[in-house]
Amino acid sequence: MARILSWFFGFLVLPATAFAEPLILKDPKGDDRGWGKLSYPTGAEYTRGAFDLVGVSIREDGDDVVFEVELAADLTDPWKSKDWGGNGFSLQFVQVYLDLDGKKRSGEKKGVPGSWVEFGPDQYWDKVVLISPQPNSKVEGEVGAKAPYLKNKVVLPSRTEARKRTIVARVPASALGGKPQKSWGVQVLMLSNEGFPAKEDILARKVNEIEGEHRFGGGCDGFGDPQVTDLLAGPAQGADAEGPAQEKLLSGYTCADEPKGAKLVQLPFVRL
Amino acid sequence: MKTLFVLWALAQTGTSTAPPDGDAPPFTDAQLDWLESMKEQLREEAQSSGGGAPASAPSGVSASALELKAEAYTKWLFRNNTSQGCVTYGNPHPSGDNFAGDNGACPELALTIIGRPTAKIEGSFRIQSRYGQQFADYFENGDLRDIPDASSESLGQNHSAPLQLRGIYVRVAQPVPYVDWFLAGSSDLGMFDPFTVGRVRFIERFNAKGLFLQTSLGEYAKLLLARIALSKLYGTANYNSLEDPLLTNPFWARDAVYAFSLGTLPALADRFSLTVNGSVVLDEEADRDDPDAPGSTNTNDPQDGITAAAPRFLGMNGSVTANLTGFDAFRAKLILALSHNAPSEEYVSNIALGGLGFSNVVYDTNTDLAAIGRFELVDLFGEGSALKLEYFNIGANFNAVVGSRREEDVLLTDGFLEGGQLPTLNLANELIDFNDKFYESCVGWHGGTLVAETTGDFLDFTAEGTFLTYNTNLQDRNMDLYPGFGGFTGYTDTQLFSYANTNDRGRDPRTVYARNQDRLSAIGMAKVRLKPDLWRGAEINLKLKYIFDKDGRDADLEEDDYQGNLLMGDLNLGGQLLDQLSGNVGLSLDSWSEDGRSGTYAGGRANFVDYRTLRLRPYLGFRYSLGALSAGYHLELVTKNVTTSDPVLDASIGPVIRSVGWIAAQF
Fold first, then answer.
1. Domain total of chain A
2. Is the pLDDT of residue A14 over 50?
3. Which residues of B fall within a CB distance of 8 Å from A144?
4. B328 CB contacts (<8 Å, ≥6 apart)?
5. Which residue in A144, B246, B338, B592 has a CA-CA distance of 20 to 30 Å to B310?
6. Which residues of A touch B457 (CB under 8 A)?
7. B97 to chain A nearest CA, in Å?
8. ipTM
């Protein structure tokens, strides 16, 4: 009862606690073509701007950290995610990588399987927040089956919502080891949700050489091309120059018929 | 040995290859790179040996050119009656089916194979077991007898789960200059819109087949052309193209929908898109005046070895959609659509005749228009809020016969029923379970909707007001031409629905025409979603809806007037019980006051009865998910009490106890 009263009155009287300044990161509109050649799937549900990242806010809210990922287009739910226990959108899969300690070579170098990126040359990630339309248990099961070594590094939101153009994900601060800090290195990758992914990928939609009804195009049919439509580049202030910078970052891959032969792109973190 | 060394080396550097604070790096960068590559290799080996997905194919073996995807699905239905089957509401065809019912455990298997021999070519097919087999049907071999027996050779193929070819297609990218791609085979038809060619319903997504070709007009527009095989079950007049007393030799193999979609690309207009869709439905039969036609009575003319065809049904639909989305402060959308339907009296019998007809077309040639305009102000009352205004005007004779049948929604309003509104008489509220949504026809609707909504960390709130009248309002409509869908009246009870009017189900959701109608309605709806920090994943949902519905029916009579005051409420609590398990519990309460709900004009006197209905529905549900496995369960209890102005018609139903559960694994 005490908790109920506390929540109710807490809701009525907004808390006066001073929160840390939010981390605000921006990305130019219209750069959702990965390395400049990526094309959307041809299916009608992949609407214009659906994978175009335009901003990220990371803010403290009580014991939680709230990630707000803004897109260029309204979120849609063509596959009726509520019917499969999902979170009110269908298409996007956002991965927020955090370098918490800033130490050289500390953490994970490779991105979550399915992203086909790595971080570097010497700044690795410590935590990744996976913001998916899938229920947490599905994401957890995929990570457990395909990357159990990431279990302690993957953070799943306690609540994920679609609000117009913004995906809002709430994460307990304790899962990130604390509240948002300006010292954090941040990188946000925009991928597409795939409920029936390839055996080596975690819920990520494939990019092929030629686009298909449910496949992105402009990459390769083997392994090595980033399955990423958009990310933060440069100082992440939304300047036009960040578009070409992103294309340069993502274009350094080499494809191969097998994962071992592939050369992945190396991504930096943004630090405010 | 290598493993031990790497583990030792990693131990020297903690869990990562980062040097400890203040210490000099124990390894050079090259050594650290090598250690990291060894770590990756160990992980891959551990994954492979542990049964997990290998990160790469075994050395020396090429990756398979084929992609295999499989799904095993089983559903359980329970209800406290003795009806048995795999789906609550089955095939509405008069001859029905032998797999619909309320008690059963029914498995299904699907195997999809996709191949890409080159980057430009993709081929795929799906092997799917026919739905209808129950756990209790083991040993059934597919033979069918008139009376089920214990031989295991009597229930037919629906109960033996034969494997069936579905979803077959070949897709070629850039086959010739100026062509983006060409597809021959299956598609879900999601490239058009509900006013022309609608996306087929989910369970049919592998069944529609055709030829599709897309070309781009530079960077400015794309054009899709398609020839889609017409479904002989519902895509034409009278729900089918072969079961017609007027046809002695039905011809359906060439029946098709010819469609196009022309849409602008961002290079032409960044913040604005324009899409034009069009379709022609052509159901042909052998021209009975041609002496070459089977069964022709023309004995005068000589045969020439060529059989002419004549249209049995011709339908034409077009739509123009303008979408303004590139502005932060507002969005606007305008849809204009046209339909023209022409059943041929020579080849289509009139099943609308008599006013009780179940027909997906009006038995007449007609043309009509539809228009929807939507304007939305974003963040008007603060961040996360919106004010939406919609005007809709769907002509009384508008009918998208091959438009979307369900699972789409063209109007903003919450509507009368819990599903969406679609501009067709050809709705599909069959082959669904008791907890699936019903969709309603908006043919003839004319009105407006205002919606205010806000979303935030603590609560989401939506309020709606809709006022509508009907283009179908008319006195003395010729119900020998217009389908009446049984002529049932009153608010539709989708919770206790049946195809026969055994539970006083009310109006069929497809019904838009009545002999005498003078109707207007208003809908008010408010819903709140609270997200308190009281338990994990806590959600409290409250939804209230009020519908005022008035129909003067025969303008010369007061005794047959209908007035409905319908109140519906639902309270639901949800949360995450375990990492893998979420649950919800709720209560629906409906109170419907309907004056003159139903009656007759027997003996030339209007005799209509007032109904008061109270329906209670407590329910609970669970959803479980573990990686590639997911499962769900829904249990509810329904009671319904009806008191009327004619006590003979008073009824009490329930408590009906029923549940549906399912488990699906993808591998």
1. 1
2. no
3. 627
4. B378, B379
5. B338
6. 61, 66, 168, 170
7. 27
8. 0.85
